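Sequence dictates fold. Next comes a concrete instance:
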Amino acid sequence: MTHSKNWRRRPLLSLAAALLTLFAAPAHALPDAQVVISVTTNSTDMPAFDHVKVVRMPIGSQTSGSAYDLPPLLRGGVSTNTLVFGRNLPAGEYEINALRQTTRGKIVELNGDSRRIIGHFVVADGQSVDLGRLVATGVNDRVMVGRSRSVTDNRALLQRHEPGRWADFLAASKGAAPVRGWLQEPDVEDQAEAYAFERPLGFQRPTEGADGRLVAASHMGSVLVRGRKGGWSLLRSGRLESLHHALPVDTPDTALVAVGELGLILRQPAGDPELHVVDPGDLPQANLRFIAGGASTGWYVAVHQGKKMWIMKSARLEAGHWTTVREIDASPLFRDGASVVWLWRTAQGLAYALPRGPIARLDFATGQWTEHRTPLGYPMLAFEPGPNGRLIAATGSSVGIVGEQPQIHRSLDDGVTWQQLPAMPADFPKSRGTPRNMADGSIAVVTGGLEAKALQVSADGGASWQRRPLPSAGSRLHALPSGLLIAEAPISWLDLDVSTDGGQTWKNSEHGTFDLPTYKAQKDKAKAP
């Protein structure tokens, strides 16, 4: 197993400028592509790589090759961790040199072993070259990059999302089928994809089912499952797309449904250990952020692309006919920020909230929407749906004073009414997370930086606080209706600490992806003469 160098930080670009450059251009401004390649990223804390650097091998007396940047071809908003790249390249022999994430200012430069294992590809005049998929996966604090064996071409992806681009791609070779371009089959040492399938790094929207399972959407077409007694397992689909939401359902033929990027819908048939692809029907093929409902009420899916989101409904999930029940303006609160829409299920249906409002609820039985404004009418900087209809919101003033500490508000009736909580004690560190509603009615908040974290719990609406233990790396807190607490560590691998008694005690690393054998092997290699 070989790895690239650690992340290297580069000067950050404005997110707005990056999006304008990469995605906002009209169709005719997208780069022509004679060579295409896609990349899926499996990471705990970073979106997809957005540029690929290739190097043309030296010719004749040349001592160094020529570098070329391959920009993305897909429109923004249809995916989060998978992108397609391409451009015209002069004839020659090439290798993949680096992957870049512009908005985070990070780059992975492939070392010699990685470049050798991935191999070289050839571009010839008059040919279209489809290099298939690369997988970039976190391995502890490093990144491993390799070729996919399960996705060897980009035909389906481009035909579905960029049909004009696919036509232009074929036109480069006068309609002839694209060639693969690689000079060798995937190397036996190329294990990036297999490693990513074994250790998907996402933990999105943990949700409890009536059967006692906890499920969370993950990357690489997978769902993490925690059993009633605490054991963890994976439901796999064999797909590379990242999932955004997994929902346990209680029907005779279906145990779970999940949705993700690029319009992917998955289903676990009752008693089946695997996930299977669902025909999305006429559902738009974009980021599917959320799913709710069922056979009796109809299915509801949140479709997100760019600054727009649509709540869509279909009577059936398989090959559904989808109609829009609400269009949402998902413009960012801040100029260079990302779109934020908070979505959750309610006892009567579903709800969503926007930073500037409204807080809106849909009743499945009546089909009616009700709306309420944000607490005090101020913008919400953070928002947390909690168990049993309880909500927490952190607001800033209407003028957004720099350095101002947000005000914390709590609702016990799904946002109909709000109560402003007392200010946090003066001796609390200014660095703190968004408070969480716990199942017993208490409020919990993680305070402090990486070196001084603490879990503070209030049973009286913020009037007084009790300090409770917190695993040293735990940062993001998830509070579940059963009373389960999960602390998700802010590190390069997935690490989940679990408490079943309101944070009094913790089971450290009940589930994690840290690879100790690989870590030891890397240390031994570094010590070798």
